[in-house]
Amino acid sequence: MSAKGLSNILSGLREAFGGFTDIGLIDNTGTQVAYVGPFDLQGKDYSDQPWFKETLQQGSYISDVFLGYRDLPHFVLAVRFTMDNGNEAILRTTIDISLFKNLLSGLNLSGDGDAFIVNRQGVLQVPSRYHGGVLEHMDLPIPEYAPSTRSLVLKKDSGDPLITGYAYVEGTPFIVMIVKRQAMLMNSMHEAVEEILWISGLSGVVIIVVILAVATFMVGRIYEAELTRVKAQRQMEHANRMASIGRLAAGVAHEINNPLAIINEKAGLLRDLFTFREEYKGDDRLVRMVDSIISSVERCGTITKRLLGFARQVDTFMAPLNLVGVIREVLSFVQKEAEYRSIEVQIHTENELPTVVSDRGKLQQIFLNLINNAFQAMDDGGSLDITVRSIGEDTAELVFSDDGCGISRENLERIFEPFFSTKKQTSGTGLGLSITYGLVNELGGEMEVVSEVGTGTTFIIRLPLKDQGKEQT
């Protein structure tokens, strides 16, 4: 808990009740680690104080009035609680006896009535009009304990009998006493007891509220930590899934390549037979059919090579790369969708771009996520412009600009947050752009977005030309 937080609590107590002098936070070793008040008590050691030990054992403590370090009459309220690091701590506040004095002086006591507070040893906690000063023993006998308000007749060594009403304030060391001469009526005792109970009870409630506030803060921190853990777990699951997809793609590509090689070999043999045997030599239709088979096999071979190239990039590997070449590799995976939906994709290079030292697999994942997002945002017949250029001598800039539906301003501020998605009613997980943003950071780059609803969206990525990626853990 910060000193500012303690200061706000103290200000509220002073404004509501008055009499609160200071407030402090004491750790489980007895050291005051945070303090707000008029004295130089920061770092003071209370470990040898009985109230400190009792608070740790009982959970709360209300002291007698004493002088202590301040050399001023005051009493202490303290309560134990558990901090977010699991250690016990104590919140302690000091109340000046002026609060009691003002309260008692406000009682409507007719005649020569006297109201004061003593502890259970008979020591006056506030000055009395006739029976002694603060911290002096009163000159009356201590009334016996009673669970409720009682009255009795007391007599000093000399003088008239005194009608005394008193009440032990439960949970405190205080006894509230109202004393009048026998001829006077007691009509203010109950009011004083209720006021004292109200002050003590409300002070306890305030401390409990502070504890609840601390507990709420701790729960919030735990919630944030849980979100971070879930985010890391989801990203790990995504990375494992990508690795599995890569291994699966490699396996599929190898399995397909074997029968493709056999088909290619047999088709070549057929072509040779049709070419050299007289009965087939003049049949152009058969030759074209065989050529079509061979062409299709070559096309399948090209696709499996792309799959193998994508699968090999699962592990991090920094190497010199041509950004335009990597973009074209990724576009080959979505070429059919672009053709089917009549989406026009254009790549522009504004100046000569040097070789970039980066990780091919991560770049492929970044580009594929951005292109897929653009395709999902566009209607059929849309256009996607990809611009690649160098900025200065050490930075490459890539701009992905589509003419899709755009992103609203309130969503634009959250699109890089984990699990935030505008497509959750369909297939969105809210991790695509979050992971893309993280991959750009891992490569030492930065990413920003500009969008307008109904006009389109532009993602801008800046990457270092040399390897500046963050250390992998």
Strand order, sheet with most strands: 2-1-5-4-3
How many DSSP H or I helices?
11
So, the CATH homologous superfamily of the largest domain? Answer: Histidine kinase-like ATPase, C-terminal domain
Identify low-pLDDT runs. Answer: 424-430, 469-473
Mean pLDDT: 80
Order of helices and strands: HEEHEEEHEEEEHHHEHHEEHEEHHEE
Cα(first) to Cα(last) distance is 33 Å
Strand tally, please?
16
CATH topology of the largest domain: Heat Shock Protein 90
**Percent strand:** 15-25%
Report the C-alpha radius of gyration, rounded.
41 Å
Shape: rod-shaped
What would you say the CATH architecture of the largest domain is? 2-Layer Sandwich
Indicate how many domains the architecture comprises: 4
Structural class: alpha+beta
Class of the largest domain in CATH?
A: Alpha Beta
Helix content: 40-55%
Largest sheet: 5 strands, antiparallel
Notes on the structure:
- The protein is of the alpha+beta class and 473 residues long.
- Helices cover 42% and strands 23% of the residues.
- It contains eleven helices and 16 strands.
- Helix 4 (189-276) runs antiparallel to helix 6 (284-311), helix 7 crosses helix 9 (360-377) and helix 9 packs antiparallel against helix 11 (432-442).
Key traits:
five-stranded mixed beta sheet; 11 helices; 4 domains; five-stranded antiparallel beta sheet; alpha+beta; disordered C terminus; rod-shaped; Beta-Lactamase; 16 strands; 473 residues; Helix Hairpins
